[in-house]
Amino acid sequence: MAVIEEESSRESDFKSQTNSASAAAAGYSSDGYETASDTELNDAVSEPENHSHSNDNGNRNGDNDGSIKSGDDEVNSEVKEEERQEKAETIEAEVNEKALAQANDAKFEGNSLFKAGLYEEALSKYEFAVHIAPDGPSSNEVRSMCHANRAACFSKLGKYEDTIKECTKALELNPTYMKALLRRGEAREKLEQYEEAIADMTKILELDPSNDQTRRTIIRLKPLADEKREKMKEEMIGKLKEMGNSILGRFGMSTDNFKAVKDPNTGSYSISFQR
Fold first, then answer.
1. Does 233 lie in the same domain as 206?
2. Rounded CA gap, 7 and 13, in Å?
3. Start-end of the TPR repeats (predicted)?
4. How many domains is the chain partitioned into structurally?
């Protein structure tokens, strides 16, 4: 009986161990505490995937951050370029302003020399002023005045061709510069360019219809212009006669066989043949 009980005890122990193993397999520990369920295990397995997804989001966020930074860099670069351009424009404006001030100073020095009768020295000052003055509308006035003043110096020196050139430069910068027109007209009169001088005086009258002195000058110049025109016609006819005689002489004729008759109404000439 004892042996059977012993064997039964062993059998009982074996069954107990078997049940314990089954219980463990069913998800319970031998001490009765709950172990991880299948769902928790699946969650644990899926965590790396979630972590990977998180990393992907992080990477995407990182990419977005990179795009934002790149955009910020472009904006900053444009802002810096605008600042550099504004600074360059400011510096250029300051340089031009300083150059214009120096040109005006040189012009004033030239004026003092002109009043003292030092025309050559005054010419140099005016030339320096024109050279140093910046290009652009802001300096057109001082440059045109310096050219006109150089013309005055040349006129005092009897260099009327140079006077006309300087006045023309002044008028290119300021077409309504009456003093330059007057000075050029006077220089043209000195060179017997009467028609050109009348054109300058007429322009002055257009700008200032009340300028009686200019009107009287035009009246005085017109007979001189007509006389010169007639003289030029006679000279031209004389040259044509010489050329005609050299050709007609081969045929026993001369220009004396041709008579020019002037029409008093039109001033034109008609040619008639005479033997």
1. no
2. 10
3. 144-177, 178-211
4. 2
Positive or negative torsion for Cα 50, 51, 56, 62: positive
103-113 burial: b if 16+ Cβ within 10 Å, else e: bbebbebbbeb
Q: Is 42 exposed, middle or buried (0-12, 13-18, 19+ CB in 10 A)?
A: exposed
Q: Within this chain, do residues 199 and 242 fall inside the same structural domain, yes or no?
A: no
Measured distance CA(226)–CA(50) in Å, rounded: 109
Q: Indicate if 256 and 201 belong to the same structural domain.
A: no
Question: Considering the entire predicted model, what is its pTM?
Answer: 0.59
Q: Give pLDDT tens digits for 13-26.
A: 544 444 444 444 44
Q: What is the CA radius of gyration of the chain?
A: 55
Q: Report angle CA 215, 217, 223 to the nearest 5 degrees.
A: 110
* C-alpha to C-alpha distance for 8 and 29, rounded to whole angstroms: 25
145 in a domain, yes or no? Answer: yes
Identify whether 165 is part of a domain: yes
182-230 confidence digits (pLDDT tens): 999 999 999 999 999 999 999 999 999 999 999 999 999 999 999 998 8
